Prior knowledge:
The chain is of the alpha+beta class. Helices cover 24% and strands 16% of the residues. The chain has helices at residues 4-25, 132-137, 173-191, 203-213, 255-260, and strands at residues 32-34, 47-48, 62-63, 79-84, 101-106, 126-130, 152-155, 165-170, 193-194, 199-200, 240-241, 244-245. Strands 1-4-5 form a three-stranded parallel beta sheet. A three-stranded antiparallel beta sheet has the order 6-8-7. The termini are far apart.
Amino acid sequence: ADSPEAQAEQAATIEAVQRAVDYAYARNVTMVVAEGNAAIDLDNPTTDEDSPNFPGGQSYPRDIDNSCLTLPAEADHVIAVTAVGPTGRKAVYSNYGLEPTDVSGPGGDLSDHFGTQKYQRFSNMILSSYPRKIARTFGLVTKDMRAKFPFVKVDCTGRKPKSCAVYFYLEGTSMAAPHVTGVAALIVSQFGSPDGAGLAMSPDPVQQRLQDSATPHACPDPNPLDYPDAGDRFTALCEGDENLNGFYGHGIVDALEAVSAP
């Protein structure tokens, strides 16, 4: 459906992203990537309404198939991460797919624990750091650094008001990816070699240890997985087995196992 000009632009974008990834990979950078929060099976996409995403306002809907890529999650040499909620269920919003998914990590899910008193609790989400100046700009905290909303937390312990720390309860694969990145960093700290500026380790053994030490998680039963409070659009089919599937990849990362396993 794209014009020749649009196709050329898409091809240039794909090549540019892969070049950047290849450059980092060649310099021993382990790249951990969030898969996205559109509840899409990346192996079986049907519609794209977000491209092109620059310049703003240029996107338009088009029918697509698996030849279209979600980048950088489907680039070579990256570790693609899905998100799970506190019960270990694939988070309702998380993209997934057998082909791209390497591992999963805690990303929070407000709608987890459906049918219990824990449903829709902020504790189902991830408490994440948040820029103090942005919080003040958008009126999320008062001038004297008090939280104005229950999903905002402010810590001024031992600090002057201008240096208080601000935290948000958030959810997303962008919460899961930092957890996986932290485990990757622990692996490098434990098994990396000095390179003159710290410790370094090739991305391939980092990824291998992440995957080998992850806790395997089988597809749900029943499968496809329904989300009772979300509607049919979010029903997700998990493909694969316990050792590798589209919801969890090789499993949910385990920090202790990653640094202690032989």
